[in-house]
Fold these 2 entries.
Entry 1:
Amino acid sequence: MIKDSEKELEKKFQEKIDRGESIEPKDWMPERYRKQLIRMMGQHAHSEIVGMLPEGNWITRAPSLKRKAVLLAKVQDEAGHGLYIYSGTETLGISRDEMNSELLSGKAKYSSIFNYPTLSWADMGAIGWLVDGAAIINQTALAKCSYGPYARAMVRICKEENFHHKQGYEILATLMKGTEEQREMAQDAVNRFWWPSMMMFGPSDKNSPNSEELMRWKVKRFSNDELRQRFVDRTVPQAENIGIKIPDPALKWNEETRHYDFGEINWEEFYNVISGKGICNKERLQARNEAHDKGAWVREAALAYAKKQASQEFAA
Ligand code: 3HC
């Protein structure tokens, strides 16, 4: 049987994508497709794990037992999302150790948003409402992506993100019904997290080197700017509902396009943060490396136990 040429295989692969069929781990795929998915899924998983740090900072400072329990549940969820997406990424032939060392060495990216400090309790509200709100927009689209394991992981993760989003919005709504000082704290948090949340969707479409290919392969179902616009259109009415001001003087409803017009993103800040020069980049990487080193004994014990189990089974 004559083997299909690479060209023929690529043609059949694209036809499968165009028919809306999902690509599974055992299917033939262009090496470039595999590499793109490893990059995107790996960064997504890293984002979930690093994203635990800014919120973890406030678990011991939560204003009530209820808030502490909810925040604890959210941070645990993020850990689960990370492990879930790492497992999905491993189906592409990269090991967990390789991904972990890429993160710890600073080689792999994770979402820019987690390189900002969390300065007050209200930041937990801003993160839940804005950051998880942006993630929901992005991940709902990814739930229809062509790579089966990724799409299926997103279905479950989006359900939990909705709880994260609601609890964040409720924190801010409560503060906005509080004292003048509490209202100022909520507004200050949104002032600091609005633009970094807008940056989560990536550079503008014209400056997005990966989008064309990812859209052709239906990994990305919408462009960076389309999802960013969807985030603004959905979030502004929610802000108005609780009396929070979006820190963008150019924000204005456009009757013609039926969307909000908004101001220019500070792209210099964006590229600074994603190239490691953000406020917390060093601190986040150091925390991850320390956690990894402190956890070495757990890995060794688990490995020793697994080896003992295996040798006993072999001897039996
Ligand atoms: N933070 C860090 N790097 C970013 C970025 C961001 N917000 N946005 C873009 N970049 C990087 C890209 O990784 C790429 O660099 P690389 O080629 O070296 O990897 C470069 O900037 C150019 O951007 P592109 O638009 O060409 O890259 P993509 O097509 O990959 O689009 C993306 C970027 C929209 C982030 C896309 O990768 C994506 O949708 N990823 C999956 C979702 C994800 O990672 N979400 C993380 C959010 S945090 C989260 O979900 C946790 C939740 O609990 C809040």
Entry 2:
Amino acid sequence: MSKKVTQAKRLKVALVVGARPQFVKASMLIRALEKYQNIKTILIHTGQHYDRDMSQIFFEELKIAPARYNLGIGSAAHGMQTGRMLIGIEKALVKERPQVVVVFGDTNSTLAAALAAAKVKYGNKGPKGDFFLYPFIAHVEAGVRSYRRHMPEEVNRTLTDRICDIHFCPSASAVKNLRKEGISEGLYNVGDIMYDSLIYFRKNIEGRQRLLRRWKLIPQRYYLATVHRENNTDIVQNLKKIIDILEGLDLPVLFPAHPRTRKAIQKLSVKFSNIRLVSPLPYFDMLAVEKNAKLIITDSGGVQKEAFYLGIPCIVLREESEWRELLSTGCNVLSGLSKKRVLKTVARFAKVRPKIKCRSIYGNGRANIKMAAIIRRLK
Ligand code: UD1
């Protein structure tokens, strides 16, 4: 590594978050980092997600201390949102001078943080004169690819990987993807930190199926749906296709809706008979409704993996997945927005529940411990 880190007694690690799943990932990594007395963590929240049920509730449930910085950026067009984050994160880094900056996943907050960290430098004075110090940048979930250039997430993750020093990959295929792109240094296959989290909080979801009564649902007698990709919410004909698919299923569909999805549905003024549209759920409740569903239908990356970890069959409303390994496990199937393909897969899963293979493709639930140990050794 060519970067210089101060030889200070304490290693200051800044973790930048902004969107729902990043709160979960950061909480797991903070937990592992704080086992080391010489590591100090500071949390920077861009404010990309700001509704109580998209942000604060995660801090409360996961017992994350309030972020040192909440930049309050909120929603805006991609460029404006990312630009405002860049300005705010840079200011926080200049003030705090962390030696390591950790970014998570593939959101606009991820790219803004990686870019701010790649450009920042801290002035220093030494016996031989002035010099600059640069922070290490670590990317959690590095190397994941959908190869769909027009997905904002693909742009964010690809560019982030180009400018970070440490690539914490969730799988062997993510390492391979990076090597193909000419990235050969700082690669670590640590596993998926969301798997760590699921294992860590497993007990918190037990008994939670009681909450299904709220919507008059019975375990194993409902489907769970989540949809929030802008391609599926902001293109009206795609959203209509999804609603038609879910309305036509043989069991009720619990649909915790992201605010942008709810807004897009409201514009259509449709009345549902099969779909139970509800607010976004806190993390433990979400895991509980996943675990008790007969089947999950989603366009989310994170939910695809959780379905697999929980052993629930999953239909992915997309033509590709950045979590490709899941497709060969027998648990996850791509359907695009084809009603025919969804119905066929639902019928197939109703007859034969998939036997889930290769449980360890995303590590052994200790990704956070491995990452913390690597960060601690940075010099
Ligand atoms: C973002 C990430 C996506 C990730 C997801 C996790 C990008 C480009 N996308 O998508 O990769 O999977 O987070 O959940 O960064 N909104 C609210 N309240 C909120 C947050 C958002 O009403 O608290 C609405 C706004 O209308 C906003 C829209 O949702 O314009 C989209 O939010 P945004 O943060 O841009 O993207 P997500 O869809 O949440």
